[in-house]
Backbone:
């Protein structure tokens, strides 16, 4: 493609977003993706931006940090958020998508883009020139070894768990009921209520269930936001009832007494045929998942289309390696984006890819690279993962705790609202100051 091209390795959420940001700026992209020729232990297809865990991009409200981050990405011309909006499914206050439509549409847009060359092969050595590595937490061993030569041998890891998906028709709706917590949105969730006795029996079964063993060289280091359900149960018998199985904010339309616990299922496809068990990531073996999860009222005869699983996620020591522009301090033409830098979540991964794409384009054209303002959701997250003074680095979601306090200080809902307003106003000024929206802003093809 010539000297004016940029290499993007990995067509997950971050890589797909980075490739699109480059292409819409008139820069040729060589997009490498090893799937489907070589699969990972978590992916099931060769589609770009495949969602391997939940189908939810989490809360859509700008009173939440991740909701603000989504809106920031919309204003920056994000491919991922545009397609997510287009392929959304009912999910109360959250933005959830039909995962197959979502990945299929992103694949179509990039594969048909005249500025993007898709190369379906595994990359084992880093190519010459400006390159964005967005291979995710399941980076192949060969490329991980290559990255270690550039970034140094220190690598961190944690384990990420996947929740099961079941068919809607196999859920007993004589027991389960539809509702959203506190009436937010429509009745988007299917809820399975448990009595105290049923909850106690379920916890007992979880605690005794057989799980997939770790390899001798592995040690269990979980991300707190994605704990396996059985690990949560080991923290105390009521942990689940105050966590993913909390019964608050739900009213059973049948007028029955308040349940002791509730299991929620969220729509996973546009047609409403598949439902994801919310918060039910697990390391239980497949036979044990059938046995234990079918103890839940309404799921006695449930059909699983995907079992829960656990896989190892690798991330780099970003505070000591990356600039806030997401280029390596030791090699400015090499950018790293996505979960491998220690951001946690679909939206956060895609947002880092967006920033890497913008800065790779600016570097190619001899422009100063940019870092988002600290007051924005994106800027505060990037500041966290690239803070050279940080110790005991662990993956992080976008959250209000990363953003600077308001002056004068306010609290509660007003604080969240004002932080969102400040973030978006600051982002708009930053976009205008650096000309971050191309004059010929590309519209996605219908």
Residues:
């Amino acid at each position: 493609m010539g000297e004016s091209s940029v290499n993007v390795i990995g067509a997950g959420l971050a890589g797909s977003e980075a490739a699109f940001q480059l292409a819409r700026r008139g820069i040729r992209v060589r997009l490498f993706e090893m799937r489907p020729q070589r699969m990972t232990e978590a992916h099931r297809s060769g589609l770009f931006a495949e969602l391997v865990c939940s189908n939810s991009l989490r809360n859509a409200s700008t009173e939440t940090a991740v909701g603000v981050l989504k809106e920031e990405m919309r204003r920056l011309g994000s491919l991922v958020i545009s397609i997510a909006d287009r392929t959304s499914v009912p999910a109360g206050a959250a933005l959830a998508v039909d995962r197959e439509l979502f990945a299929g549409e992103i694949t179509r847009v990039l594969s048909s883009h005249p500025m993007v060359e898709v190369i379906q092969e595994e990359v084992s050595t880093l190519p010459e020139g400006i390159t964005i590595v967005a291979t995710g937490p399941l980076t192949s061993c060969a490329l991980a070894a290559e990255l270690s030569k550039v970034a140094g041998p220190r690598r961190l890891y944690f384990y990420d768990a996947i929740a099961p998906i079941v068919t809607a028709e196999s859920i007993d709706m004589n027991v389960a009921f539809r509702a959203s917590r506190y009436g937010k949105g429509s009745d988007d969730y299917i809820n399975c209520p448990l009595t105290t006795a049923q909850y106690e029996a379920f916890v007992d079964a979880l605690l005794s269930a057989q799980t997939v063993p770790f390899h001798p060289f592995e040690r269990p280091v979980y991300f707190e936001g994605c704990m396996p359900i059985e690990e949560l149960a080991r923290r105390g018998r009521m942990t689940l009832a105050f966590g993913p199985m909390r019964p608050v904010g739900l009213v059973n339309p049948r007028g029955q007494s308040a349940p002791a616990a509730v299991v929620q299922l969220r729509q996973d496809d546009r047609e409403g045929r598949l439902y994801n068990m919310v918060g039910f990531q697990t390391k239980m073996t497949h036979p044990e998942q059938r046995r234990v999860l079918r103890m839940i009222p309404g799921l006695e005869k449930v059909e699983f289309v995907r079992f829960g699983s656990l896989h190892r996620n690798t991330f780099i020591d970003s505070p000591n390696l990356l600039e806030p522009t997401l280029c390596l301090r030791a090699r400015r033409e090499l950018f790293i984006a996505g979960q491998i830098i220690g951001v946690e979540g679909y939206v956060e991964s895609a947002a880092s890819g967006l920033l890497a794409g913008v800065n790779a384009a600016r570097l190619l054209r001899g422009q100063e690279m940019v870092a988002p303002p600290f007051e924005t959701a994106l800027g505060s997250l990037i500041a966290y993962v690239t803070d050279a003074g940080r110790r005991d680095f662990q993956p992080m979601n976008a959250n209000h705790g990363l953003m600077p306090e308001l002056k004068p200080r306010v609290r509660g809902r007003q604080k969240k609202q004002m932080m969102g307003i400040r973030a978006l106003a600051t982002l708009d000024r930053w976009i205008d100051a650096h000309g971050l929206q191309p004059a010929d802003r590309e519209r996605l093809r219908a």
In short: The chain has two domains: 5-158+313-434, 164-307. The first strand starts at residue 5 and ends at 9. The mean pLDDT is 89. The two ends are 27 Å apart (CA to CA).
